[in-house]
Amino acid sequence: MAGMAAAAAAGLTRKGIVMASAEKREITRHPNEYFYKADGTFDEAKAKEAYYKMFEEFGYPIVPRLRSADFWVVDFGLGKFAEVGMGGIFWVNNQEDNYFGHDIYLLPGQMIPEHRHVRTEAAPKMEGWQPRHGWIYIYGEGEPTPGVEERIPPSHKECAIARCEKKLMPGEVGQLGGAEQWHWMYAPEGAIVTEYATYHDGAGLRFSHPDVVF
């Protein structure tokens, strides 16, 4: 049986299947000005095309719904989409039964700005994250990780509260440390992340950066 397994593995390697899965993918990068029109306004169409390119590079299927208005992109009003920005789709957001399914898309070098979810008529949102492609750093409250300041993007070096860092690789899961805690996410090389959570009430969203809008 062991011999058969070894032979099968060798065959997969010869066919390039195992080798391909282990290859490091280089995701296309764009300068910040690429995402803005001549008048300085955010170019959502170019942002979406950059994500579609990343999807192809990761081998992530572009289903029809990702070509619809359900797929959104945002630069959070800072004009620094290459640093502070994201794409996303809410696959489901069920208030009655209190569950939420979200895919998060981050180009190389992008972060989701630091935020928290406070109580509204709904309980504070709780969430966990699982990279599907690429990898991420997640940041939560707690003892600051030594050297973390070197990895905080420029826009957040002064305001970031959450400085306890954890690296998540594909298949690993990280969770929010507690209700209403500050947190953020950073993808140095680009990533596609699935979020599992309770109901998302946008009215409960708060950002630590004073100029962020969503």
Provide an overview of this structure.
With 214 residues, the protein is α+β, with helices and mostly antiparallel strands. The chain has a single domain, classed as Jelly Rolls, CATH 2.60.120.10. Helix content is 16%, strand content 30%. The chain is built from three helices and eleven strands. The chain has helices at 2-14, 17-22, 44-58, and strands at residues 71-74, 86-94, 99-106, 110-117, 127-134, 136-140, 164-168, 174-175, 183-187, 191-197, 205-207. The strands form two sheets. Strands 1-2-3-10-5-8 form a six-stranded antiparallel beta sheet, covered by helices on one side. A hairpin with a 4-residue loop joins strand 2 (86-94) and strand 3 (99-106). It is globular, with a radius of gyration of 19 Å. The N and C termini lie far apart (57 Å). The model is unreliable at 1-23 (pLDDT under 50).
